[in-house]
C-alpha cells in the first residue's frame, strides 16, 4: 500500500491500539517518520526498554519495570493505609490526584459469578496476607461506583471488618459539577451525606 | 506518576502522536503492556526497523525503506503516466484505490507566497527533469480541490503544457453521495461536467 512492507506492518500494529484506527494510524506513522529525531527514535528506544522490562509488581499488581514497584519499596509509603483499586488505570488516577500517601492493592477486576471470577482470581487472598505482613491499619476501598465494583467492595468489607479499619471514597457532587447535569443517584447520595456548614 | 520512569516516558511520547492525548496514551500503554507478545514486542521491533530505515524516496518523495521506493523501481509502473500529488498521504490514498498504475511525484506541499513556498521548495524542477528522463507522456494533476491546491495545479500546467499531455481528476458527485448533503460548488461542477447517457 505505502510501497514498503515495514511501514505497512507498523500501520497495521498501530491501528490495533485502543483509540486508533487505520486512518489515524497512517497519520501517526507519517508524523513519526517526519519527526524522526524528536519522536520516532525516542519512541522506538522507550518501547524496546518497556518491552524488555515491564511487569506486574509481585506485591500490589501495579505495572512497573521491576519485580516490586517503586511505591511498594518506598518506606515513605508505609503509612499503614492500603488503597484497594480494581485496575492499574485506577491506581494511576489515584496517584495523579496526589491525595493518597499510602500503598495500593490492585484487584485486577471485580467479582463476577457469570464470568467465573471468584476471590482467588482477584488477589483477595494476597490482600489479606498483606494486612498482616505490612501492618495495615486502614483499608480504603476505592472501587468504581458501579454495581460490580460495589458488590466486590461489600465482599471484601465482610471478610476484613473484624481485622482492620475500613473506609470507602465519599460519594457526592464532583468538583465543578452542575446539579442540572447530575444523575438522580448522585444527587440522592450527596443529599444523604450532607454536612453541616 | 505510574511508579516507573520508562512507562511515564512512553506515555509522554505516545501523547504527542496526532489523535492521541494523555488519557488515550495511558490507555494505549496499558493495553500494550498487557498484550506484550501480541502487540508490544512486534511494535517495538517494527518501530526500530522503521526508525533505522525509513527515508524519502530520492526520486518521487514517497516514504519507504530504501533510497528509491518500490513504485519507482518497478518496471510495471513505467507506464509513461505520472501522478502529481501534494503529500505522501495523498499518494497512499491513490494507491489504496488501486486505480492508478503509473508512478507518482510528491510535491511536499502547495505554492504559497505568504509562507515563502516557491517552485524550488516543491520539487517542481525535479518534476520537469523526470518528464524527460522517464519518458513521461501524461501528467495527472491529482492535487487537492482547495484554493492552494488548484493554484499550484495551474502553475504546473502553465509550465508543462507545451511538453506533455496534462489532465486533472474529474470533479463531481462522490460515489454514494446524496445531493441533499453536497455543497453548491460540487453540484455546479457535476452539472457543468454532465455526461450524455
UniProtKB/TrEMBL annotation, chains A, B:
Q: Where are the zinc fingers (C4-type)?
A: 57-72
* Keyword set, alphabetical order: DNA damage, DNA recombination, DNA repair, Metal-binding, Zinc, Zinc-finger
Q: Name one GO biological process term.
A: DNA repair
Pfam families in the record = RecR_C (PF21175), RecR_HhH (PF21176), RecR_ZnF (PF02132), Toprim_4 (PF13662)
Highest rank taxon of the organism: Bacteria
Q: Which GO terms describe its molecular function?
A: DNA binding; zinc ion binding
Toprim domain boundaries: 80-174
**InterPro entries cross-referenced by the UniProt entry:** DNA_Rcmb_RecR, Rcmb_RecR, Rcmb_RecR_Znf, TOPRIM_dom, TOPRIM_RecR
Q: Where is the signal peptide?
A: none
PROSITE patterns found in the cross-reference section: TOPRIM (PS50880)
- UniProt keyword Signal present: no
The UniProt family comment states: Belongs to the RecR family.
Q: What is this protein called?
A: Recombination protein RecR
Q: Which organism is it from?
A: Shimia litoralis
